[in-house]
Amino acid sequence: MKKMILGVIITAMVGWTIYDLLLPGKEAAEETEIAKSETAQSETTGLAVGDLAPDFELMTMDGQTVRLSDYRGQRVFINFWATWCPPCRAEMPDMQQLYEEQDVPVEILAVNLTASEQSQENIATFVEDFGLSFPILLDTNSETANKYKVKAVPASYMIDTTGRIAFVAPGAMNKEFMAQEVEKMN
């Protein structure tokens, strides 16, 4: 009887050892699948906080091509605006001050809804009158505004150094609020 009990115990121990050896491989495979799923999910482009910001390519007023993806690794403040928009006019001096002071480095990309303007000359006059030194991008066919689902201006997106949306502002902001949101970004 003792030999039979000992045999059962040894068989159980061998079986348990084999199970333990195989289980970590199974767990590792499951962890790899979970990581792949999370990576695929985290690479989703969208407009919600945490999503990768949709890339775009626009021309500046002086004919330079600018892509959002060119700024990966930097904090980016995208602002959709128009010269005829009173809240945009109120917000621009604060944006310029934020850009000049650079307490926390941030690149400002001011996307003008050019299709809604009477003329590009109005944009140039606006930029000169407000002394704007950050890039002014021309969304001539509203493709970028449509991609970002801009319904009213101003509308802003704060993009962190990984290219993810950190904050969305559907409306005008003051400098203090802008600076707070920039500081929160990585």
Please tell me about this protein's structure.
Mean pLDDT is 86; it is low at 12-23 and 34-41. The protein has a 7-stranded mixed sheet, with helices on one face. It has helices at residues 2-42, 86-101, 120-130, 143-147, 175-184, and strands at 57-60, 65-67, 76-81, 107-112, 136-138, 155-159, 165-169. It is α/β, with parallel strands linked by helices. Strand 6 and strand 7 (165-169) form a beta hairpin.
% residues in beta strands: 15-25%
Quaternary organisation: single chain
Strand tally is 7
Q: Span from first to last CA? A: 69 Å
- What string, H for helix and E for strand, traces the elements in order? HEEEHEHEHEEH
Q: How many whole angstroms does the radius of gyration measure?
A: 27 Å
Which spans of ≥5 residues are poorly predicted at pLDDT below 50? 12-23, 34-41
Separate helix tally: 5
Helicity level: 40-55%
Structural class, by secondary structure, is alpha/beta
Please summarize the sheet with the most strands. 7 strands, mixed
pLDDT averaged residue by residue: 86
Backbone shape: elongated
At a glance:
45% of the residues lie in helices and 17% in strands.
Explain the layout of strands and helices:
Elements: H1 2-42, E1 57-60, E2 65-67, E3 76-81, H2 86-101, E4 107-112, H3 120-130, E5 136-138, H4 143-147, E6 155-159, E7 165-169, H5 175-184
Parallel strand pairs: 3-4, 4-5
Antiparallel strand pairs: 1-2, 1-5, 3-6, 6-7
Q: Which key terms come to mind for this protein?
A:
186 residues, alpha/beta, 17% strand, elongated
